[in-house]
Every structure is written in C-alpha cells, then in structure tokens.
Amino acid sequence: MHVSESTIHRQQRSLLARIRRLVPIEESSTAIAGREVPWIRVTDPDALLWQALSKGDQGSVEQDPFWAAAWRAAIGMDHFLGRIAEQRESKSLEGTSMLELGGGSGRAGISAAMRGANVTITDASTTALLVCRYNASHGSGVNSVCRLDWRDTNSGLGEFSIILGSDIVYDPKLFPILEPCLRRHLKKDGVVYLSEPQRHTGDRFQTWIQSAGWRLTEHFVDLMDREKPIRIFECRLNS
After folding, report:
1. ∠ at Cα 169 (164, 172), nearest 5°?
2. Where do the domains of the chain lie, and which CATH numbers do they carry?
3. How many Cα atoms sit within 13 Å of 63 on the Cβ side?
4. N-terminal to C-terminal alpha carbon distance within the chain
5. How far apart are CA 180 and CA 212, in angstroms?
6. Is residue 88 very low, low, confident or very high in pLDDT (cuts 50, 70, 90)?
7. Strand pairing class (25-32; 35-42)
8. 236 by DSSP, 3-state: which?
9. What 3-state DSSP class applies to 83?
10. Which residues on neighbouring strands pair with residue 97, listed in sequence order?
C-alpha cells in the first residue's frame, strides 16, 4: 500500500512529539552506510543513567538507559557491514534476513537495511523503540521495529540468517539470557556478529560463548579515532 509523503511527515511529527515528552532530544544527521541521514539523539544520556540509578531501575530492561548513548561499537558495526557487502557480487546485503538485538537508536540495523538486507530491529526499552522508529522512518528500508525481551521463548519473530548486536555483551549476567535467544532466532548455518570496544567483559564473553558450543572468529574495525579498534565477534554454532 502506497503511503503519501504528507502522511509520512505527519506520522514523523507525531512520533517526534511523543518522544520529546519522554526524553530530551535534538535533531541532527549522521553518516550511515556512507550517506548522511536525518537522526535524533538523546541530548544528555548521562542524565538518564543517573535517573535510573537514583530509582534503582538500572537493572530493568524497560528502564535500561544505556541505549541512549552513541556507542562506538554501533559505528564499527556499520563499517563492518559495509565490508561484508563489498565482498559480495551484488555489493549489497540484498536478500539477507537480519535481526538486531538491543538495537537502541537503530544505527546498525538501519545500516544493514540501507545496504539491502531485510531487517528487524528489536529492543526491550519502549523509549528506544520510539527513537529507533523515527530514525528508521526516513526511507531506510527497515522491515520492522519491535519489542523483544531476550527471555521470551514465544516471540514469534522466527529465524534469521544473520543476528547483529552492538555493545550488548558488556554484562556477564546477561550471557546466559542472550545465548539461548541467539539459538532460538538463528537459522541453521546462520551467523551472529557482535561488536564491542575490546572491554575485559568482551574477553570474558569470548571464552564463555565458546564453552557454550559456538565457534568464534575475531574481526577488527579501526575507526581512526585514536581509540582501540572495535572488535567484532563472528559466532557460529558447532555442527
């Protein structure tokens, strides 16, 4: 069904007003998949963190404030997806089904969609999903933005060829929740790509996931920002 441009703009304005009632944001643009695209970001993510800490909500998936930051790992994933696309004959990710876990504001999933993949972006935070929907609404091609709690064994999302995650292995307490979720939603012979900035928790995840029956390969993306390169874990289930 064709949706007129005026209808899309009206929906975007309504969504933007709803987000502004929840968090302070600013409208800007950002580079994704080699293009400058409209973008909104939370102006003070640290304030969200302190608010969550003061309420004791930092452990709640609904109130998790960490999605609001502009994580380097998501930028690294964007670059890495470009690397994968360039290796294909079509120079795109066309025809590939992808699921993003912990999508936050949506950078990695939008990057994949802009390169032709069929992408579903998920998060457990309602506010993050609203921000992601707005960021994805500017012709990105994202299929769906929806809520997913990793503990949900009846999500109905199905299986995907590739699962993405940017900076979602920062807490070892989440590993036993994340791993079954990956198994539920990964197609046979599928691959998981998880990006992180070489934290010690990433080292712990590397050991843990292999002990859980996965093969792991490391890739690195240098963002040329004088920080450590982003590490990408390529995870495949042992046959």
Report:
1. 145
2. 5-237 (3.40.50.150)
3. 14
4. 42
5. 10
6. very high
7. antiparallel
8. strand
9. helix
10. 118
Outline where the chain has alpha helix (H). 5-20, 45-55, 72-86, 107-114, 126-136, 175-185, 200-211
* Angle at 65 (CA atoms; ends 100, 18), nearest 5 degrees: 85
Give the span between the Cα atoms of 33 and 39, in whole angstroms. Answer: 14
**Burial annotation 25-51 (CB, 10 A radius, 16+ → b, else e):** beeeebebbeeebebbbbeebeebbee
Give the pLDDT confidence of 95-148 residue by residue, as tens digits.
Answer: 999 999 999 999 999 999 999 999 999 999 888 999 999 999 999 999 999 999
Dihedral sign for Cα 44, 125, 32, 138, please. negative
Handedness of CA 142, 144, 148, 153 (dihedral sign): negative
The identity of residue 234, as a single letter, is E
Per-residue pLDDT of 145-195, as tens digits, reads: 999 999 999 999 999 999 999 999 999 999 999 999 999 999 999 999 999
Residue-wise over 136-167: b if at least 16 C-beta within 10 A, else e?
bbeebebbebbebebeeeebebeebbbbbbbb
Using alpha carbons only, what angle is made at residue 209 by residues 204 and 213, rounded to the nearest 5 degrees? 150
Q: How far apart are CA 235 and CA 195, in angstroms?
A: 11
